[in-house]
Amino acid sequence: MHTSxxxxxxxxxxxGAASGFGELAAQRFAQAGxxxxxxxxxxxxxxxxxxxxxxxxxxxxxxxxxxxxxxxVKAFVSACVEHYGRLDIGINNAGISHPKKRLHQLDEAHxxxxxxxxxxxxxxxxxxxxTQMVEQGAGVILNVASxxxxxxxxxxxxxxxxxxxxxxxxxxxxxxxGKMNIRVNAICPxxxxxxxxxxxxxxxxxxxxxxxxxxxxxxxLGEVEEIVQAMLWACSKDNSFMNGAVVPLDGGLAAx
Length: 256
Description:
Layout: E1 11-14, H1 20-31, E2 35-40, H2 43-55, E3 59-64, H3 70-84, E4 89-92, H4 108-136, E5 139-144, H5 157-177, E6 182-189, H6 195-204, H7 208-215, H8 224-235, E7 246-249
Parallel strand pairs: 1-2, 1-4, 2-3, 4-5, 5-6, 6-7
Helix pairs in contact: 1-2, 1-8, 3-4, 4-5
């Protein structure tokens, strides 16, 4: 049995909502009464998530959005506010990875694509979310960083650098906006059973899954539900004094 949360009449924006953490978060926030604005670069898939929520009595809008595009992010946040009249919670979840290679084997295109989504995308979302939240005098932002934002990540150096940047954005914004009744926090999941991770493991082949599990103090991968429950907790009004926190959800990996 999961903890019961009440997000009735709160407007929750989620990026990267077509699969993984974002899709399940959309479902759980809807079940808790939230009104949802969902986006993903895959417009058809995120619309399907919104439609599923609506068939179960929830309220959701969906829109295709490349978070590395200033104009698309601005349009998405504006559409959310135009439809619902406000924005209470922004969950910046969209993210991508890059081929597992040593740093010198990666090129500028890998950098631009990975950090365009993972770091610039979070900046752009925060920029327009905060613009609205400052105007209305309250809000919550939750950035989905990574365990790779807390430590080095061999063969994923560009991904790690972007996620470190998300942690820096989170802490800095928390200091800037806390006095305005706006909380900004981040979670840092380790490898969990998302489509992104599963596809990466399939591509790697061999004993990649077993090696990942062996390297974790709890000897397993995370469950998507475990990460989403932490999202609900972080955004809850019951958690109203947490600001600038960067929470590892990694089975103890960052403690080693």
